[in-house]
Structures are given as structure tokens and as C-alpha cells.
Amino acid sequence: MAPTDTGAPTPARQSEFAPAKINLTLHVTGRRADGYHLLDSLVVFADLGDRVAVAPDTGLSLTVTGPMAGGVPTGPDNLVLRAARLAGVTGAAITLDKHLPAAAGIGGGSSDAAATLRVLRDRLGVAMPAPLALGADVPVCLAARTARMRGIGENVEPVSGLPPLPAVLVNPGVSVATPDVFRRLSRRDGSAMDDIPAFADARACADWLRGQRNDLEAPARALAPGIGTVLTALGDSGAALVRMSGSGATCFGLFTDTATARQAAGQIAAANPGWWVRSTILGAAHHDPADQPIEL
Ligand code: C5P
User: Fold this and answer.
1) Predicted confidence band at 248 (pLDDT cuts at 50, 70, 90)?
2) Where does the record place the catalytic residues (predicted)?
3) Which positions are annotated as active-site residues?
4) What residues does each domain of the chain span?
5) Of 168, 199, 281, 294, which is most buried by a Cβ count within 10 Å?
6) 50 in ligand 1 pocket by Cβ < 6 Å?
7) CA-to-CA separations, 274 to 70, 158, 174, 264, in angstroms, rounded
8) 3-class DSSP state for residue 176?
9) Binding site membership of 107 for ligand 1 (Cβ less than 6 Å)
10) Which of 178, 214, 223 to probe ligand 1 with, by most ligand atoms within 8 A of CB?
């Protein structure tokens, strides 16, 4: 059936990729009076993620689709809707195509919120609100490129000199609450990350990373022992470096080449049918060609 021609232009549906965020390091260097922790973290983005699509509409609505849609809240607290409201948007039909596990340490919700703000700004001309109000990881997710993140997350400095890193991401299907992990930290005044050199290749990057840390790994492992099982499986699969991302429970293994990473992912997935296992490239450019440069 032909659509009725009202003479009005058809509202365009615009979409943005919301890549998985991986903390290659996460040093906790202090604590503010309000309880938030000071961090020093090297953050990279994967070539897999969610997608947020926005079409002008009379009211504000959210539909969640995709293989990981189950359990994602669709109410007003969803970060995508909070992002739209923070930007002053009252009319938009938003679709979130969910491929990343939620509450998993890879920035699912934060990256979705950041992609919402990007699509509103870059495609629909909406002014950008201060992103930190949506969560500490949202500023770095807004940049969506390799960066050093400091402060509680508001200080984002682009980093170059990292090679593309073949990796395997594994989530054992347990979710860990970020505040609980921070609460269990035994030390809150650790050293900052070393200065980041330029790396010849993925092996050199993995070697340097071994001297850095994720301070949230030990408290997260105490809360969810399954994280230790994942780290062991990644180590046994030949990864050059294994570590947890963010506050967990997703862990990553870095590999020196893509074929070995794919093979390891296949083996880990076959041996652990309940786990979410993906091979990916970290730090590779993933932006849609139409993306504007991100102002930090
Ligand atoms: O900002 P976001 O909602 O992601 O943070 C979730 C929780 O993690 C905060 O309520 C806080 O307990 C903890 N957090 C922290 N220091 C940070 C980031 C998060 O203590 N820099």
C-alpha cells in the first residue's frame, strides 16, 4: 500500500554504533569526599557493540531488540531515555538493538547513552548536555576512541600509539554491581598508571600491560568467583595477557593475531556453552563514515 502523501518530509531514522568499552587498565588512585573514586584507566573500544536508532516522534519511547534484549529495563531509568531527557528531547522513538551483556563491565549502558547523545547531536542538531551526569563512563564512551580516563571519569585524553589488539571477550553470565565492587576495595590509594609508550605490536602492548593493573579485579573475584574461572580459561587458551574489564564480570584476553583469537574464542565457547564469548579487535577505528569528529 502506498503511504499517504501529506506533503511533509518523512522523518529520518538515524542510528549510531555503541561499541563495547574495555578497560585495559584500571588503577584506583584515590577517593573523593563524596565517595566517588579517582581512576587512571586506559580505555579502548571493540568492533562489536549495540546500536541506537532515533526517529522524531510525538512522545519519547524506547524499544529494545536484539539477542541481549532480555532483562534490559525499558522504563524511564534506562540510560538511553535518561540521555534523551537530559538533552531536552521530549519527542523521539528510540530503538536499542542490544548485543552486549548488561551490567558486565564493558560499558553497555554507558555506551548506549553516549551513542544516543551522539546521534542527537551529530544527526539531529540537539545541543550536547554534560555527559557525566549519566555516569562516570559516559564521557569516555562519548569519545568512543582509545583514551586515558582520569578523575572519576570526566577527564578524557585521546591516546594514539596503540596497535589494533586481537582479543577475546568472555562473560560468564553473572552480573556484579559496581558499587559493591568498589565497596570491597582493600586499597584506595594505589599508584597511577605508567606513562603509555608507543607500541610496535600487540605483543609489546600486552607485555607493557602486564606491569599495570585492574584494581577492581580482586574485589570482583571475591564477589563472583566465576570470574577466576574465566581468567583461567582465557590464560589456558594462549592469550598473551588476561584481565577483567571495568568492575566485571567480563574479562578479556589479548592475542598476537586474529586467527589465534578466533580459534581461542571457538574453543572457549564450545567448552562453556553458557558463557558469552566473542572475538574482536580492540582499538580499531569503528566510526560510521558519516560520524563527525568528537569534541572532547
Ligand atoms: O557513575 P556510575 O553510575 O557508572 O557509577 C556506579 C557506581 O560506581 C557509583 O555509584 C559509585 O559507587 C561507583 N563509582 C565510584 N567511582 C567512580 C565510578 C563509579 O566509586 N569513579
Assistant:
1) very high
2) 21, 137
3) 21, 137
4) 14-282
5) 168
6) no
7) 15, 36, 10, 16
8) coil
9) no
10) 178
Ligand 1 site, residue 105, Cβ cutoff 6 A: no
**What are the grid coordinates assigned to 94, written together?**
528510540
Q: Is the pLDDT of residue 120 over 90?
A: yes
Identity of residue 258: T
What proportion of the chain, given as a percentage, has pLDDT over 70?
92
192 C-alpha to center of ligand 1: Å? 18
Q: Which CATH class is domain 14-282?
A: alpha beta
Label residue 238 left, alpha or beta by phi (over 0 means left) and psi (-120 to 50 means alpha): left
Summarised one tens digit per residue, pLDDT across range 217-242 is 999 999 999 999 999 999 999 999 99
The pLDDT of residue 123 is 87
Does the Cβ of 36 fall within 6 Å of ligand 1? yes
Reported as a single tens digit per residue, the pLDDT across 155-202 is: 999 999 899 999 999 999 999 999 999 999 999 999 999 999 999 999
- Ligand 1 atom showing the smallest separation from residue 136 Cα: 1
